Amino acid sequence: MANPNLQDIIEKQVLTVAKAVEDKIDEEISALDRLDLDDIEALRERRLQQMKRMAEKRSRWISLGHGEYTEIPLEKDFFSVVKASDRVVCHFFRDNWPCKLLDVAITGKKIMRKNYYVRAIQYVMEYVMDKHMTILAKQHIETRFVKIHAEKSPFLADKLKIAVLPTLALIKNAKVDDYVVGFDELGGTDEFNTEDMEERLAKAQVIFFEGESSLNLSKSSAQTRSVRQSESNDSSDSD
């Protein structure tokens, strides 16, 4: 049985919080009531200006290649990419020749089998990373998502100390601020969700994130539309 005194304390705390929330709401309502037409027009104009600035930002981001996951062809191009965008996620990868892996599996050759096995694991990891980066590039247009071949970029790989592949370099204001090395931070498996990667990038503040995954919000919106369409169809059928 709960302690009566403890229960009273909890109830009082709940009432106190509820009263504070109610007072805050009343204060905001009163502030709205005090607005005259000039105040409302000023708020409207401010909102329009905010929307205009955001549209200009989106247009600039798209012109820089945001919204797509692309490969940087040459090592020297890396520097112009990270200087042009405030936030960049760069995936360092290598080629792993899946066709040769298939040859080994079919012929049963023992030569270099261990090496090919390692390459097979890396190939899967690179494929998984590409999949998640492609999704996030479309969801987070505020950030540039790119990839670069580590072995063809020896100066960069050495300067940034890229030792494990795949590695994500998280870049803000033209400086590498953080790394995601392999999948250790994502559960140590290639079966992690895109939301897991999204939260990791948000933790590094290289993408905009407001608590709930933008992917979940998109799914929720799609499900809502689906339900509404279903209800509309049912209504039409009943007519």
From TrEMBL:
Stretch forming the signal peptide: none
Keywords annotated in UniProt: Coiled coil
Stretches for region Disordered: 217-239
Entries under InterPro entries matching the protein: Thioredoxin-like_sf
Polar residues: bias regions: 217-233
Domain of life according to the entry: Eukaryota
Coiled-coil features, chain-numbered ranges: 18-60
PANTHER family reported for this sequence: THIOREDOXIN DOMAIN-CONTAINING PROTEIN 9
Protein name: Thioredoxin domain-containing protein
The species this protein was found in: Salix dunnii
